[in-house]
Amino acid sequence: MAIKDRMSGNEAVSYAIRQINPDVMPAFPITPSTEIPQLVSAYIANGEMDTEFIPVESEHSSMSAAIGAEAAGARSLTATSSAGLALMWEELLLAASNRMPVVLALVNRTLSGPININCDHSDGMGARDTGWIQIYAENNQEAYDNFIQAYPIAEHMDVHLPVMICQDGFITSHAVENIELLEDKTVKSFVGEYEPKEYLLNPGKPIAVGPYSASGYVMEAKKNQEIAMENAKDVILSVAKRFGKISGRSYGLFEEYRTADADYIMVLIGSAAGTAKQAADDLREKGIKAGILKVRVFRPFPAKELAEALKNCKMAAIMDRCESYNGNGGPLGCETDAALFRHKIAIETVNYIYGLGGRDFTVDDVYAVFQEMEDAVLHGKKVEQYQYIGLRK
Questions:
Q1: Which of 159, 162, 156 is nearest to 94 (CA)?
Q2: How far, in Å, CA of 247 to CA of 268, rounded?
Q3: Per-residue pLDDT reduced to its tens digit, 155-206
Q4: Which residues does the UniProt record annotate as the domain Pyruvate flavodoxin/ferredoxin oxidoreductase pyrimidine binding (predicted)?
Q5: 243: closest CA among 191, 195, 305?
Q6: Fewer Cβ atoms within 10 Å of its own Cβ: the N or the C terminal residue of the chain?
């Protein structure tokens, strides 16, 4: 039975952690994720869970401790944001390459400089090629739901990779919304117990974790890691299907909103999708066939599926809340264009950068993007590629 409540995104993720009751949580505070370890440690102090909480001296240490605990056979997690994720850089790659199903609650915040504590996706996108599965939330409900699905994905024998559950800093992490929670016993049954087949503290079956690998073996290890990432697509969908049965909420690799007959589609990630959906509804009332495609799973990137979803529109706007500094576009823009080209889908696209450092992204901004697409398709007006939205002149 659903439990109706009101929670911030950080509260929702912390509540999910309490329900799962993992074995070990090392953590170091950093805005805007600080509330997650704070709330979890309060649950532990109040006797509501028996997770071993480890206060550490840095985010590098928190991921190191999570990897160590996971290698020893314990279900582990941590939480961080921004520079904290950057400080974990070496350990992120170790967690993935050593096939540790650690879960990380990432509250997205811009990376310096200049110093800023507000939302963009530069932290998560900066770690996009570290070998972690990445799942992004639009709202507090999705942050809660995604976290509950994380361990069944990470620990699946065809995957065994770490998972980042991402939500937008302050926009969802601190804003309070209505939410439907699952009962504790339902979550516990869905997630199950962690029973690793190989771990350091398994008596009588010694193994090595993270040994030196000679050149003759590294490529095979990397290929197996890539196969696991490919396998993750089907596992993510399978877990989402199971989750739908207990929650009534359905999830896929991405969400399509009014795209079936759309002439123009906006592709984006995270909380801005809510703004875009409202604008699309408004534009539909004016006769403009606008649609929204919200990417939920960025790693593994759903290239084939996304190309198929866009093939019938006349033009797509691809929105990045992150700068790649490659002189050619943002990460979502580049990967979407590559997916379309590889699968021979010949539609026009334009890449926009928006919302850096917490810059507002409004329904008027969405209207303007769709107007540019319509002008390009109907009147042949050239649209500037790789433009910033809301940039002060």
A1: 162
A2: 25
A3: 999 999 999 999 999 999 999 999 999 999 999 999 999 999 999 988 888 8
A4: 16-240
A5: 191
A6: C
d(C-alpha 209, C-alpha 295), whole Å: 34
Tens of pLDDT, residue by residue over 324-339, are 999 999 999 999 999 9
Whether the per-residue pLDDT at 63 is higher than 90: the answer is: yes
Average pLDDT of 231-248?
98
Q: Could you report the per-residue pLDDT of 111-131, keeping only the tens digit for each?
A: 988 999 999 999 999 999 999
Cα 30 to Cα 86, 117, 246, 371: the distances in Å are 12, 10, 34, 40
Structure tokens at 363: 């329904």
In angstroms, the CA 327 to CA 330 distance is 9
- Of 339, 345, 255, 335, give the one whose Cα is nearest residue 295: 255
pTM over 0.90, yes/no: yes
| CA–CA gap between residue 107 and residue 95 (Å, rounded) | 19
Residue 203: what pLDDT?
86
Give Cα separations from 238 to 234, 241, 254, 303 (angstroms): 6, 5, 14, 18
Q: Structural domains in the chain?
A: 3-247 (3.40.50.970), 254-388 (3.40.50.920)
- Helix axis angle, 9-20 to 35-45, nearest 10°: 40
280-285 contacts: CB < 8 A, separation 24 or more?
280/366, 280/370, 282/363, 282/367, 283/367, 283/370, 284/258
**Nearest-angstrom CA–CA distance, 109 and 122:** 7
Quickly state the pLDDT bin for 379 (edges 50, 70, 90). Answer: very high
Beta strands at 24-27 and 52-55: parallel, antiparallel or unpaired: parallel
Taking the C-alpha atoms of residue 382 and residue 67, their distance in angstroms, rounded to an integer, is: 50
